[in-house]
């Protein structure tokens, strides 16, 4: 297979740039045929991905983070024929790759998987509102989830955008946690109405740098897994922090879960939603009366760990 490697040296707060040379050597050592192309912006990533097949590449390897692979996948959405997608974890979160079976996700294990060539077809999602839409590959978050990311992104101007940055912002935001009000429906049936702290809908189970915010999600079952958390104070949030990482979030008394092909959120105040889609902040128009998350089954063929 002839691979196009899309290299994002800015991933992981710039740490990826230091890893590329040794990763390139490891790919050569594994006798993987590839051509590297460097990207510095999402639009450039999408252009490279959309042209891959026309340029003779049967597969795309993303050297970067969740945002880079999401941009590449978004560019391929709607294509009848798509290249295989592989991933070399060089970002700060690397959540999507965990969701498709690499846990722990190491550079060595991913290179060996590329060499072995095992694949499976996985899902993605589309976020829609009255006058727009946005593709997502792994997860969509609203409320506290998006607020923390928005603040962490702002803090990046002063500190490197890393897991520590995110966790620090999470802790500070939890001191006086805000809440929002909305109605949540799954496949047309309401499952939660009222005040909420945060909401995550996942194609995959991991987001936020290893947190299991959609702990029952399976990346290839054609379904979205949604969890809404009711309002909590600082002490309650800290008490349940471990459940964010150990896969028991949906079992807490504050969680309400749903699983289906469509999740609809209708905020009490139109335009009151800030979205987090695959680690990117997206703000719909101020008149957005609803947000709908739609499953896109069988969307991508991806490299997976070798069968044991």
**Low-confidence runs:** none
Please give the number of β-strands.
Answer: 16
By secondary-structure content and strand pairing, the structural class works out as: alpha+beta
Main beta sheet? 6 strands, antiparallel
Proportion in helices:
25-40%
**Count of distinct structural domains:** 2
Total helical segments: 9
How far the N terminus sits from the C terminus, by CA atoms, comes to 23 Å
Radius of gyration: 19 Å
Give the spatial strand order of the biggest sheet.
6-5-16-13-8-9
What is the CATH topology assignment of the largest domain? Tumour Suppressor Smad4
CATH architecture of the largest domain: Sandwich
**What would the average pLDDT be, to the nearest integer?**
91
- Beta-strand content bin: 25-35%
* Mass-distribution shape: globular
What letter string, H or E per element, gives the SSE order? EHEHEHEHHEEEHHEEEEHHEEEEE
Quick one: CATH class of the largest domain? Mainly Beta
């Amino acid at each position: 297979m002839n691979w196009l490697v899309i290299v994002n040296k800015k991933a992981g707060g710039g740490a990826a740039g230091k890893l590329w040379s040794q990763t390139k050597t490891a790919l050569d050592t594994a006798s993987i045929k590839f051509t590297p192309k460097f990207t510095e912006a999402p639009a450039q990533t999408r252009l490279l991905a959309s042209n891959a097949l026309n340029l003779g590449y049967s597969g795309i390897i993303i050297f970067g983070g969740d945002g880079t692979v999401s941009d590449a996948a978004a560019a391929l959405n709607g294509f009848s024929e798509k290249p295989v997608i592989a991933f070399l974890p060089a970002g700060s979160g690397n959540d999507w790759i965990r969701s498709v079976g690499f846990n722990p996700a190491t550079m060595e294990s991913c290179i060996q998987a590329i060499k072995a060539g095992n694949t499976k077809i996985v899902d993605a999602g589309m976020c829609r509102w009255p006058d727009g839409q946005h593709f997502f590959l792994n997860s969509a978050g609203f409320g506290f989830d998006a607020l923390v990311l928005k603040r962490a992104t702002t803090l990046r101007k002063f500190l490197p955008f890393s897991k520590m940055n995110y966790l620090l912002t999470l802790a500070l935001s939890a001191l006086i946690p805000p809440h929002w009000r909305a109605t949540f429906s799954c496949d047309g049936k309401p499952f939660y109405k009222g005040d909420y702290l945060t909401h995550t809908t996942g194609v995959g189970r991991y987001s936020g740098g290893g947190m299991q915010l959609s702990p029952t999600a399976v990346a290839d079952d054609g379904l979205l897994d949604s969890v809404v958390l009711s309002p909590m104070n600082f002490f309650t949030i800290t008490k349940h922090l471990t459940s964010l990482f150990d896969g028991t979030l949906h079992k807490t008394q504050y969680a309400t879960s749903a699983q289906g092909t469509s999740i609809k959120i209708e905020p009490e105040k139109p335009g009151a939603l800030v979205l987090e889609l695959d680690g990117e902040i997206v703000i719909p128009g101020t008149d957005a009366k609803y947000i709908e998350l739609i499953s896109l089954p069988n969307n991508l063929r991806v490299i997976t760990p070798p069968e044991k």
